[in-house]
Amino acid sequence: MNLNDAMDKLLEMNIVSVTILDKREVKDSDWFHDHTKPLAFSHKTHQISILIDDEYETIKLVDNIKIKLDLNESPYFVEKRFKDQDWNTYTQSQFNEIIVSKSLRIIPPWLNKQGFEGNTIIIQPGSGFGTGTHPTTRLCLKWLENNDISNDSLLDFGSGSGVLAITAKKLGASFAEGIEIDPKAIDNANHNAMLNGVDIHFHKTEESLKDDSYDNVVANILSDTIINISPKLKKLTRKRLALSGILIDQVERVIDTYSDWICLKVSEEIDDWVLLNGKL
After folding, report:
1. What pTM value is reported for the model?
2. What homologous superfamily is domain 96-279 in, according to CATH?
3. Could you give the C-alpha distances from 62 to 3, 56, 234, 276, in angstroms and in order?
4. Per-residue DSSP letter, 27
5. What is the Cα 182 distance to its own chain's centre?
6. What is the pLDDT of residues 180-230, one digit of tens each?
7. How far apart are CA 27 and CA 245, in angstroms?
8. Distance between CA atoms of 228 and 134, rounded to whole angstroms?
C-alpha cells in the first residue's frame, strides 16, 4: 500500500491527526516524489504518529489500524500521554517565518505580516510541497531573486504549494502559471495565490496551459522526473531554465540529458542539493 492510500484510510478513523515521520537523512528521503510511482514506506524508513483522545483505547486503535491497512499482524507501537492543549495553536507554532534573503521571506497566514521591508510570501502549509524550508525550494527562490524576471512570463513545472509562481508574480513577472499533477496540491496552491492577492492558474496537464512557451521555466522535482521531461521543457522554455531537486552526484547525468538543447551549469548549492540553470 502506498503512503497516500494509507494516510487516507487512517484519516477515516476517529483520530485527531496523523503524521508520517521519515527516519532517514534528508538527502536519502523521498521528501517529494513522482506521482506516477506511488511512494511506498515501511517500518525501516517511516513511522506513523497518531494523536487520539484519551477516551479512545490505544489497543482498540491498533487493532483497527491492522484491519484498515490489511496488516498480517498488529504494528509495534509506543504510547505517550500529553496534557490537553490547544492543538491548533500547537500546530501553528511548528511553522515559523523563513527568511530567504534580506528582501524575501515566507510566512504562514497566522503570523504578523508587518515589520519586513522586502517581499512577504504567505504560504498555508498543506499537501503541496514547498513551504520554503527545504534547500531546493530556497535555491529556486534565490534564483528568482537573482534573475530579472520583471515583465517576463514564468512556468512553475511541478508547482506544489505554488510558492515559486507566487514569488515570481511578486517579483514582477507579467504572467505566471503552474503545472502540478496532485489535485490536493493544486487546491493548496490556489488558496496560497488568493492569500497573496495574485492571479495564477495551476493546471494538471500541459494541455491546459494558456501559453505554448514561457520566458522562464522553473522545475523543482525529482532528478529522475527532470530527466524524463527534458523534451517537454525544451518546447516550453523560451529564455531561461532553472532545475532543482538534484543532488550533487546526479548533476552530470542531468546536464548530459539536456545538452542537446541547452547548456546547464551549477548555479548554487545548499546541503548537497544544487540548482542548475541555463539560457537559450
Report:
1. 0.73
2. Vaccinia Virus protein VP39 (3.40.50.150)
3. 18, 11, 50, 46
4. G
5. 11
6. 988 888 999 999 999 999 999 999 988 899 999 999 999 999 889 999 999
7. 10
8. 23
